[in-house]
Protein backbone atom coordinates (compact mmCIF):
# COMPACT_ATOMS: atom_id res chain seq x y z
CA UNK A 1 0.00 0.00 0.00
CA UNK A 2 1.17 3.49 -0.87
CA UNK A 3 -0.29 6.84 0.20
CA UNK A 4 -1.54 9.27 -2.42
CA UNK A 5 -0.78 12.39 -0.38
CA UNK A 6 2.82 11.29 0.17
CA UNK A 7 3.53 10.01 -3.33
CA UNK A 8 2.27 13.17 -5.06
CA UNK A 9 4.30 15.50 -2.79
CA UNK A 10 6.20 18.32 -4.53
CA UNK A 11 9.14 20.21 -3.04
CA UNK A 12 10.85 23.44 -4.07
CA UNK A 13 14.32 22.69 -5.48
CA UNK A 14 16.91 24.52 -7.60
CA UNK A 15 14.57 27.35 -8.52
CA UNK A 16 11.83 24.96 -9.59
CA UNK A 17 10.03 21.95 -8.17
CA UNK A 18 10.87 18.28 -7.75
CA UNK A 19 8.95 15.09 -7.08
CA UNK A 20 9.66 11.37 -7.06
CA UNK A 21 7.55 8.95 -9.09
CA UNK A 22 6.67 5.88 -7.02
CA UNK A 23 6.48 2.43 -8.62
CA UNK A 24 3.45 1.76 -6.44
CA UNK A 25 1.37 3.70 -9.00
CA UNK A 26 2.35 1.62 -12.02
CA UNK A 27 -0.01 0.89 -14.90
CA UNK A 28 1.86 0.78 -18.23
CA UNK A 29 4.56 2.78 -16.46
CA UNK A 30 3.70 5.59 -14.04
CA UNK A 31 -0.08 6.02 -14.17
CA UNK A 32 -0.98 9.13 -16.17
CA UNK A 33 -3.47 10.43 -13.63
CA UNK A 34 -0.90 10.03 -10.88
CA UNK A 35 1.71 12.01 -12.81
CA UNK A 36 -0.93 14.66 -13.63
CA UNK A 37 -1.83 14.98 -9.95
CA UNK A 38 1.81 15.84 -9.23
CA UNK A 39 1.70 18.56 -11.91
CA UNK A 40 -1.51 19.92 -10.38
CA UNK A 41 0.10 20.10 -6.93
CA UNK A 42 3.08 21.97 -8.39
CA UNK A 43 0.69 24.51 -9.89
CA UNK A 44 -0.98 24.82 -6.50
CA UNK A 45 2.31 25.79 -4.88
CA UNK A 46 2.95 28.48 -7.48
CA UNK A 47 -0.60 29.88 -7.45
CA UNK A 48 -1.71 32.48 -4.89
CA UNK A 49 -2.53 30.89 -1.52
CA UNK A 50 -6.24 31.76 -1.71
CA UNK A 51 -6.73 30.09 -5.11
CA UNK A 52 -8.40 26.78 -5.92
CA UNK A 53 -8.07 24.66 -9.09
CA UNK A 54 -10.50 25.40 -11.90
CA UNK A 55 -9.29 23.09 -14.66
CA UNK A 56 -6.29 21.22 -15.99
CA UNK A 57 -5.44 20.26 -19.56
CA UNK A 58 -2.63 17.71 -19.81
CA UNK A 59 -0.62 16.44 -22.76
CA UNK A 60 1.28 13.21 -22.17
CA UNK A 61 4.56 13.46 -24.07
CA UNK A 62 6.59 10.44 -22.93
CA UNK A 63 6.58 7.58 -20.45
CA UNK A 64 8.62 8.43 -17.37
CA UNK A 65 10.82 6.17 -15.26
CA UNK A 66 10.22 5.62 -11.56
CA UNK A 67 12.68 8.25 -10.40
CA UNK A 68 12.92 11.97 -9.67
CA UNK A 69 11.26 14.47 -12.00
CA UNK A 70 11.79 18.22 -12.27
CA UNK A 71 8.91 20.61 -12.82
CA UNK A 72 8.80 24.20 -13.98
CA UNK A 73 5.69 26.31 -13.42
CA UNK A 74 5.23 29.52 -15.38
CA UNK A 75 2.29 31.84 -14.71
CA UNK A 76 1.20 33.00 -18.17
CA UNK A 77 -1.90 34.92 -17.04
CA UNK A 78 -2.11 36.62 -13.65
CA UNK A 79 -5.49 38.31 -13.35
CA UNK A 80 -7.06 39.79 -10.25
CA UNK A 81 -9.04 36.63 -9.51
CA UNK A 82 -7.86 34.01 -12.04
CA UNK A 83 -4.44 32.68 -13.03
CA UNK A 84 -3.32 30.39 -15.84
CA UNK A 85 -0.11 28.45 -15.24
CA UNK A 86 1.94 26.34 -17.61
CA UNK A 87 3.55 23.26 -16.04
CA UNK A 88 6.28 21.17 -17.68
CA UNK A 89 7.58 17.96 -16.12
CA UNK A 90 11.01 16.72 -17.21
CA UNK A 91 13.19 13.76 -16.43
CA UNK A 92 16.83 13.78 -17.46
CA UNK A 93 16.09 16.89 -19.51
CA UNK A 94 13.34 15.14 -21.50
CA UNK A 95 9.80 16.53 -21.38
CA UNK A 96 7.40 13.97 -19.91
CA UNK A 97 4.24 16.03 -19.53
CA UNK A 98 2.96 19.53 -20.06
CA UNK A 99 -0.19 21.00 -18.59
CA UNK A 100 -2.15 24.21 -18.40
CA UNK A 101 -3.86 24.87 -15.08
CA UNK A 102 -6.44 27.58 -14.36
CA UNK A 103 -6.93 28.68 -10.77
CA UNK A 104 -9.20 31.24 -9.12
CA UNK A 105 -10.00 32.96 -5.85
CA UNK A 106 -13.57 33.68 -6.99
CA UNK A 107 -16.36 32.24 -4.82
CA UNK A 108 -19.44 34.33 -5.67
CA UNK A 109 -21.81 33.51 -8.52
CA UNK A 110 -24.81 31.39 -9.56
CA UNK A 111 -25.44 28.07 -7.83
CA UNK A 112 -27.25 25.14 -9.43
CA UNK A 113 -26.95 21.55 -10.62
CA UNK A 114 -29.39 20.33 -13.25
CA UNK A 115 -27.46 17.16 -14.02
CA UNK A 116 -29.03 14.19 -12.28
CA UNK A 117 -26.95 12.09 -9.91
CA UNK A 118 -26.74 8.46 -11.09
CA UNK A 119 -29.20 6.22 -9.30
CA UNK A 120 -26.79 3.75 -7.69
CA UNK A 121 -26.42 2.05 -4.29
CA UNK A 122 -24.38 3.90 -1.68
CA UNK A 123 -20.87 2.55 -1.01
CA UNK A 124 -21.88 1.26 2.43
CA UNK A 125 -24.32 -1.10 0.69
CA UNK A 126 -21.81 -2.58 -1.75
CA UNK A 127 -19.00 -5.13 -1.28
CA UNK A 128 -15.39 -4.47 -2.17
CA UNK A 129 -14.20 -5.66 -5.59
CA UNK A 130 -11.96 -8.24 -3.90
CA UNK A 131 -15.09 -10.04 -2.72
CA UNK A 132 -15.72 -11.23 -6.26
CA UNK A 133 -12.15 -12.17 -7.15
CA UNK A 134 -10.11 -15.32 -6.46
CA UNK A 135 -7.32 -14.72 -3.97
CA UNK A 136 -4.64 -15.41 -6.60
CA UNK A 137 -6.14 -13.05 -9.23
CA UNK A 138 -3.45 -10.87 -10.90
CA UNK A 139 -3.57 -7.25 -9.81
CA UNK A 140 -1.54 -4.16 -10.62
CA UNK A 141 0.23 -2.69 -7.58
CA UNK A 142 -1.69 0.50 -8.37
CA UNK A 143 -4.94 -1.02 -7.08
CA UNK A 144 -3.43 -1.78 -3.68
CA UNK A 145 -3.69 1.97 -3.03
CA UNK A 146 -7.37 2.35 -3.90
CA UNK A 147 -10.38 0.53 -2.47
CA UNK A 148 -13.02 -0.13 -5.15
CA UNK A 149 -16.71 -0.96 -4.87
CA UNK A 150 -18.24 -1.64 -8.31
CA UNK A 151 -21.93 -0.83 -8.74
CA UNK A 152 -22.21 -3.92 -10.95
CA UNK A 153 -19.35 -6.40 -11.06
CA UNK A 154 -18.29 -7.60 -14.52
CA UNK A 155 -16.23 -10.82 -14.35
CA UNK A 156 -12.83 -10.67 -16.03
CA UNK A 157 -13.21 -11.65 -19.66
CA UNK A 158 -16.96 -10.98 -19.78
CA UNK A 159 -18.57 -8.30 -21.92
CA UNK A 160 -20.38 -5.53 -20.05
CA UNK A 161 -24.05 -5.77 -21.18
CA UNK A 162 -24.32 -1.98 -20.75
CA UNK A 163 -21.47 -1.35 -23.19
CA UNK A 164 -18.29 0.61 -22.58
CA UNK A 165 -19.38 2.08 -19.28
CA UNK A 166 -18.21 1.86 -15.67
CA UNK A 167 -19.80 2.95 -12.41
CA UNK A 168 -17.81 2.35 -9.26
CA UNK A 169 -17.08 3.92 -5.90
CA UNK A 170 -13.47 4.33 -4.89
CA UNK A 171 -11.51 5.47 -1.84
CA UNK A 172 -7.83 6.27 -1.44
CA UNK A 173 -6.43 4.02 1.27
CA UNK A 174 -5.04 6.01 4.20
CA UNK A 175 -5.72 9.36 2.52
CA UNK A 176 -4.91 12.40 4.66
CA UNK A 177 -5.15 16.12 3.97
CA UNK A 178 -4.95 17.85 7.35
CA UNK A 179 -3.84 21.14 5.78
CA UNK A 180 -6.85 21.28 3.47
CA UNK A 181 -4.73 21.41 0.29
CA UNK A 182 -7.35 22.00 -2.42
CA UNK A 183 -5.00 20.93 -5.21
CA UNK A 184 -4.21 17.64 -3.47
CA UNK A 185 -7.92 17.06 -2.87
CA UNK A 186 -8.78 17.76 -6.51
CA UNK A 187 -6.11 15.26 -7.53
CA UNK A 188 -8.30 12.45 -6.19
CA UNK A 189 -10.82 13.11 -8.97
CA UNK A 190 -8.17 13.86 -11.58
CA UNK A 191 -6.39 10.53 -11.15
CA UNK A 192 -9.52 8.43 -11.42
CA UNK A 193 -10.85 10.21 -14.52
CA UNK A 194 -7.61 9.38 -16.31
CA UNK A 195 -7.51 5.81 -15.03
CA UNK A 196 -11.05 4.55 -15.54
CA UNK A 197 -11.60 5.37 -19.22
CA UNK A 198 -9.53 2.57 -20.78
CA UNK A 199 -11.10 -0.13 -18.56
CA UNK A 200 -14.53 1.27 -19.47
CA UNK A 201 -13.82 0.80 -23.17
CA UNK A 202 -12.11 -2.55 -22.63
CA UNK A 203 -14.98 -4.06 -20.63
CA UNK A 204 -17.44 -3.08 -23.30
CA UNK A 205 -15.59 -5.29 -25.78
CA UNK A 206 -14.50 -8.20 -23.58
CA UNK A 207 -11.08 -9.70 -23.00
CA UNK A 208 -9.83 -11.65 -25.99
CA UNK A 209 -11.96 -9.66 -28.42
CA UNK A 210 -9.49 -6.79 -28.81
CA UNK A 211 -5.83 -6.92 -29.74
CA UNK A 212 -4.80 -3.40 -28.84
CA UNK A 213 -4.29 -0.99 -25.99
CA UNK A 214 -5.11 2.72 -25.94
CA UNK A 215 -2.78 4.94 -23.90
CA UNK A 216 -3.97 8.47 -23.21
CA UNK A 217 -2.69 11.29 -25.40
CA UNK A 218 -4.30 13.97 -23.28
CA UNK A 219 -6.59 14.62 -20.34
CA UNK A 220 -8.85 17.55 -19.52
CA UNK A 221 -10.66 17.94 -16.21
CA UNK A 222 -12.96 20.67 -14.92
CA UNK A 223 -13.29 20.95 -11.14
CA UNK A 224 -16.71 21.95 -9.80
CA UNK A 225 -16.41 21.27 -6.07
CA UNK A 226 -13.99 19.86 -3.51
CA UNK A 227 -14.32 16.23 -2.39
CA UNK A 228 -13.69 17.39 1.19
CA UNK A 229 -15.10 14.99 3.74
CA UNK A 230 -16.45 12.58 1.11
CA UNK A 231 -14.29 9.52 1.69
CA UNK A 232 -15.81 7.59 -1.22
CA UNK A 233 -16.16 9.08 -4.71
CA UNK A 234 -18.30 7.72 -7.55
CA UNK A 235 -16.80 7.47 -11.03
CA UNK A 236 -19.50 7.41 -13.71
CA UNK A 237 -17.55 6.81 -16.92
CA UNK A 238 -18.15 5.91 -20.54
CA UNK A 239 -15.65 5.39 -23.34
CA UNK A 240 -18.09 4.57 -26.10
CA UNK A 241 -16.71 6.58 -29.02
CA UNK A 242 -13.96 5.17 -31.26
CA UNK A 243 -12.74 5.84 -34.77
CA UNK A 244 -9.86 7.20 -36.79
CA UNK A 245 -7.32 5.48 -34.57
CA UNK A 246 -8.71 7.06 -31.42
CA UNK A 247 -10.82 6.01 -28.43
CA UNK A 248 -12.62 8.78 -26.54
CA UNK A 249 -14.02 8.72 -23.02
CA UNK A 250 -15.67 10.98 -20.48
CA UNK A 251 -16.26 10.70 -16.74
CA UNK A 252 -18.17 12.43 -13.95
CA UNK A 253 -17.00 12.23 -10.34
CA UNK A 254 -19.65 12.50 -7.61
CA UNK A 255 -19.43 12.76 -3.82
CA UNK A 256 -21.33 10.58 -1.37
CA UNK A 257 -23.70 13.48 -0.64
CA UNK A 258 -24.60 14.02 -4.30
CA UNK A 259 -22.27 16.86 -5.29
CA UNK A 260 -20.69 16.87 -8.74
CA UNK A 261 -16.97 17.10 -7.99
CA UNK A 262 -15.42 17.05 -11.46
CA UNK A 263 -16.00 16.18 -15.09
CA UNK A 264 -13.37 15.27 -17.63
CA UNK A 265 -12.33 13.32 -20.65
CA UNK A 266 -9.48 11.96 -22.70
CA UNK A 267 -8.47 10.93 -26.20
CA UNK A 268 -6.64 7.60 -26.28
CA UNK A 269 -4.47 6.40 -29.16
CA UNK A 270 -5.17 2.98 -30.69
CA UNK A 271 -1.96 0.96 -30.31
CA UNK A 272 -1.83 -2.64 -31.65
CA UNK A 273 -0.56 -5.21 -29.17
CA UNK A 274 2.94 -6.49 -29.85
The total beta strand count reads 14
Cα(first) to Cα(last) distance is 31 Å
Percent strand equals: 35-45%
The arrangement of helices and strands along the chain is HEEHEEEEEEHEEEEEE
Q: What features would you describe in this structure?
A:
With 274 residues, the protein is of the alpha+beta class. It has three helices and 14 strands. Strands 1-2-4-5-6-3-10-13-12-11-8-7 form a twelve-stranded antiparallel β-sheet, with helices on one face. It has a two-stranded antiparallel ribbon with strand order 9-14. The radius of gyration is 18 Å and the shape is globular.
Write a brief structural summary.
With 274 residues, the protein is of the alpha+beta class. It has 3 helices and 14 strands. Strand 11 and strand 12 (246-255) form a beta hairpin.
Write out key terms for the chains shown:
14 strands, two-stranded antiparallel sheet, twelve-stranded antiparallel sheet, single chain, 274 residues, alpha+beta
How are the elements arranged and paired?
Blueprint: H1 4-7, E1 11-13, E2 16-20, H2 32-46, E3 52-60, E4 68-78, E5 82-91, E6 94-104, E7 146-150, E8 165-172, H3 182-205, E9 212-213, E10 218-223, E11 233-243, E12 246-255, E13 260-269, E14 271-272
Antiparallel strand pairs: 1-2, 2-4, 3-6, 3-10, 4-5, 5-6, 7-8, 8-11, 9-14, 10-13, 11-12, 12-13
Helix pairs in contact: 2-3
